[in-house]
Amino acid sequence: MELSQEELAFFSNMFADKSTPEQTEESGHALSIKSEIPSNLYQVFEQSKLTLLAEISHYQLWFPLEMTIENGEFKPVLGTPEIVDIQNGERSWRGGDFVNVELQDQKGKAHDLLSLSSTGIAFRVSDRRSLKRILNEKSLCISLPNEEQVALEFEAVRVERDVVAAKIAKVQRGRDRLRKFLFNLHRNENQQLYQGLQS
Question: Per-residue pLDDT averaged across 141-152, rounded?
């Protein structure tokens, strides 16, 4: 497929680095497009070919980016971003203040959700008798405030008394819902970072 001069100019302009270091330092924000996803985000962006990277303070927001063609013109379509905290070793941002969020095991028993990211979870088991069963089942369900469900499989990384810290091995249902929930939580907790940005 051969691209027209207009299409080549569009891509050239799109991938051009337009922000100067002075602008980035003043605002604390930077924007770039990446064709490679960092290896620690492969699991999160299963099928994304392009990403748009926005840097706000010590956070990187990795937006999945798709290009569609409407009426002969390229239109970028952004998905909900994955938030990476670069101050704490480049890992997915973890939320920890949950309202109207319920964590349940396969038997429907509720447990305390302590921390959640797109790649990990920490929770307190409601009773120690359930701990062994939950660790064997390796499956949980999260009910989000809008009554949407996220079903996931986990691999325990650390267990201390009744607290389990785990890696999310697979999101069976609701990966986009989870990312959107975490992004909105981050935006609510860090409103000062998003001032002046359009939503």
Answer: 93
Q: Which of 60, 93, 126 is the last residue of a domain?
A: 93
Q: What is the CATH number of the domain that holds 173?
A: 2.40.10.220
Q: Which two tokens stand for residue 84?
A: 């990476």
Residue 40 is predicted with a pLDDT of 61
Backbone angles phi and psi of 121, in degrees to 5: -150, 145
**CA gap 126, 43 in Å, rounded:** 29
Which amino acid belongs to residue 44? V
Q: End of a domain among 93, 123, 145?
A: 93
pTM for this structure? 0.74
Q: Can you give the residue range of the structural domain that contains 87?
A: 5-93
Q: How far is CA 89 from CA 2, 58, 93, 150, 184, in A?
A: 42, 11, 10, 26, 22
55 vs 89: which has the higher pLDDT: 55
SS3 150: strand
| CA–CA separation, 68 and 86 (whole Å) | 31
Domain for residue 68, yes or no?
yes
